[in-house]
Write the structure tokens for this entry.
Amino acid sequence: MAMADSTKGPKLPPAAKPAERRERGGWLAKIAPGVSKLVNRRGETPENLWVKDPDTGDMIYRSDLEAALWVTPSGRHMRIGPAARMKYTFDDGQFESLPTPDVVEDPLHFSDGKAYSERLKQARAATGEKDVMAIGYGKVQGVDCIVLVQDFAFMGGSLGMAAGEGFIAAAKAAIERKCPMVAYTAAGGARMQEGALSLMQMARTTLAINEMKAAQLPYIVVLTDPTTGGVTASYAMLGDIHLAEPGALIGFAGPRVIETTIREKLPEGFQRSEYLVEKGMVDRVVPRSELPEVLGALMSMLMSGRRKAA
């Protein structure tokens, strides 16, 4: 009996060359151009297509989260940058971006294992921003105003010379235009790489607020997660009205530091927006979707009182 020749069998078509495979895969772009953008060369979905809810662990479709202003189904108000804040705050997302002053970089030539100048470069590459502050001018519910946004993604929103100059520039712009100013705060404290120069910004921003008060212009603060340290000890708590997003951490020192110091367990929800409303530190907790309407109503009322007084 003859043995079967294992080398013989049905002929298979030659493997497609890479260029041919790419051409055959072009059917997706022809049939559904929009879908093809969601698929990379290897046929995998991009990493940022889904976002994980930090509270429940559920995966949320990114476009749905953006449509919800980055508020998850569980109610978590996620941290967002200046571009998103400006877009949903101003009417129709239209505003004029105002420049922030330049400052001396790395005045102390500081290094904590990595040069401060290098950390600045990395933060700018990651966020696309020059520093922590962004300033916009436009209308909110028909009321002209200056909006200042502090970006926590830029070195923890730390207060340094650039942040101080940005705040002062926003206050001056409000005075020049005779309009209110809204500040969205988000910070982990002072920028240690600038030492005492950072701490000086607490006094300088306070003086800028005094100038606004002298001009009888409203200054409204929206406290976002987190607002702590020297920012809380200065311009974040010097507003005419203090609003806060739900669940935002607001305080000077963090809860763990306080517990370690006093050696006691803190109350449930300590330093969160809802707790601070009960204690009178915050005037009102406002969901992100309602902020433009609330801000517009407050500014309209306060400016109306200013005109009557004049």
